[in-house]
Predict the structure.
Amino acid sequence: MSAERTYFILYALVVAYLCGHFAAYLLFFRHRGRLSTERSVFRYHFVSACLLSLAAILGVIRNPGDAAIATAIGVIFAHGIYSLSFLELWTLSQISYSREILLLAKLRGQFAKNAPPPELTRVGDSKKNDRFESLCRLKLLRHDGEVIKLTLPGRLIGNTLRAIAWLAHLKATG
């Protein structure tokens, strides 16, 4: 079998694996509590990415060469693109403020732009609180009473994000 055919088959197997990973989520995990949080969905993808990356690296060790390295990089990046796309869509589907506005507009027919219904205020407050608690759990923020302070890791990540925004020439973030 030619090398090109071998690598084509490997890519086909990776696509099948990623489709199976997605199908397993849709069929078995989506409606169960185990994968109902951002952290658990991330872990589901992280473990899969680690396993696939390990297999790709072992493939390079077993059959060293430029084509094997290129294939391993392609496999790892394919999983990365799939996982990031999945996580972004999953996040957008969760308690999205825009989604809630649309659902309330559908249910109520209309409401004042400057006076959002209390349900929307609660969604916004809930999202802010959840994000704040996550940042505290990750030790990026801490609070002393009513004062929120960045930790050293929080400052490092904040400065890194500021540098990325500067490099990308972003005028507004948030």
